[in-house]
Amino acid sequence: MPGDPYQIRVSFGVEGQYFEVLGFLYGLEAMGRLMRVDTMAMTANVISPDEESVTPPEGEEPAAQDPPERREADIVLVSVSVGAVVFTSTPPPTAEVPTTTTIPPDDSGETTETTSTTVPGGGE
User: Fold this and answer.
1) Which residues of 50-72 are buried (b: 16+ CB within 10 A; e: fewer)?
2) CA–CA separation, 34 and 91 (whole Å)
3) What is the pTM of this model?
4) What sign does the dihedral 47-53-59-60 (CA atoms) show?
5) Residues with Cβ < 8 Å from 112, sequence gap 6 or more?
6) Cβ distance 63 to 56 under 8 Å?
7) Residue 79 φ then ψ, to 5°
8) Domains and CATH numbers, the chain
9) What is the pLDDT of residues 65-117, one digit of tens each?
10) What is the bridge-based pairing of β-strands 97-103 and 112-118?
């Protein structure tokens, strides 16, 4: 139907400290374009610069313990993965794809080549 917006599927990930990632997500919300977020996943990873990972000896179960308290020197990295659809009234850019077809010789012994250009269509 004419006038329907074009849909552009996008997926992206961002990683950084909490407030950096939060600022990025607020920027998406304020974007001057219609976007529908279909999926979002967020994970956090605490990195302690002065602490080494301790692995129990082979065959032994790790001792049950309370999780370590977060210290000020710890770095918390947040990762966000987003799957979305961006809507636009402008058709997405298209790439021309040239195709060459060789036709076998006819009775005169001449080979004919034709080249056509295919341009992929617009939105859904």
Assistant:
1) eeeeeeeeeeeeeeeeeeeeeee
2) 15
3) 0.52
4) negative
5) 102, 103, 106
6) yes
7) -115, 135
8) 6-50+73-118 (3.30.70)
9) 555 565 666 788 899 999 999 888 887 677 666 666 666 666 666 656 666 66
10) antiparallel
